[in-house]
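To: structure subgroup
Subject: Chain for Friday's discussion

All,

I'm putting the inputs and outputs inline so they're searchable in the archive.
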Amino acid sequence: MSAVQRVAIAGAGIAGLASAILLAEDGVEVDVYEIKPELSALGSGITLQGNALRSFARLGIWDEVQAKCWSSDRLGLRAPGPDAPVIAVIPDAKTGGPDFPAAAGMYRPDLAQIMLDRATSLGARVHYGIVVDALTQDADGVDLTLSDGSTARVDLLIGADGLNSAVRTMIGIDVKPEPTGMGIWRAFVPRPKEVTHTDLYYGGPMYIAGYCPTSDAMMYAYLVEDKQDRTAVTPEQAIEIMRESSRAYGGPWEQIRESLGADSRVNYTWFTSHLIDGPWNRGRVVLIGDAAHSCPPTIAQGGAQAAEDALVLCDILARATAVDDAGWDEFTRRRLDRARTIVEASLQLGQWQLDHVQGDVPGLMGRIAALTSVPA
């Protein structure tokens, strides 16, 4: 029997819904509170490494994900210029093991819907437009005040409410995401038939120009630049900025430029990073996913690490007979160093680019692949 019988989860992203799936599967009563008024996911696509796909199998959603994603075992490197010459096509590390592709691209809302359907089919309740406004706790549970005026008492509160976590503030952890110096444009566009795997272009006016297929018909494309204040940019201007910023890149980028339009969901965000360097819980409130740690997507581990947080936390809860220090110590031991290594490696890759130095990228990527190939 699980150490908890009733759990509240703040946030319906990957970390929150993964936790809801695992807890509900174990017979726990689960309520998920999501600030958005309906299911949605920022951006266009997400790159999922093999260790994320392995986690999805444990969540019981790999078949559905596989049917909706575009997977590949290769990574292409191209140079800027009108011909976009291919420098290399290299095997990508299969960090999920031999039963899974090395990586997959997926439309974010499709992944969100699959996870939501799985959670609710197991009995989890998801409440949209409602957040945790306040909390108090004692040795036996957590009392919640919700934004709709209702209250609840639970055995555990999981703060999976993202980068700017309100739960993190409520429990007195003063750690916030800090900009790394880069910003990224993303767009959702038709997939040119020649694009069968992720390609990364290094050099030219952008730090990275890349794209990742997400289905037979679509892919997402991105440009990484020095961070800028783009808050006043209109949707029309955003499209034009992506077009102009990508002119140094040929090959499939020629078609990408032509296809950019109002339906491309162009968006811009800064790369940020943070890590709670110590226990992620305060009493019976615990933070996971982007609430506890975040990093730029330079090694595409954000979604994978969010899912791993949930798997480790719920594994501990399922084996425990009580919510106690022994469980929290195990959670910290299994997650903190792994997350720190991912964050630091992601930052290092970006910093080499910001500093315009040639770092040991193959060595760094090899170390991360070796780490993530071992289940959390």
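Points worth raising on Friday:
The first strand starts at residue 6 and ends at 10.
The radius of gyration is 21 Å.

D.
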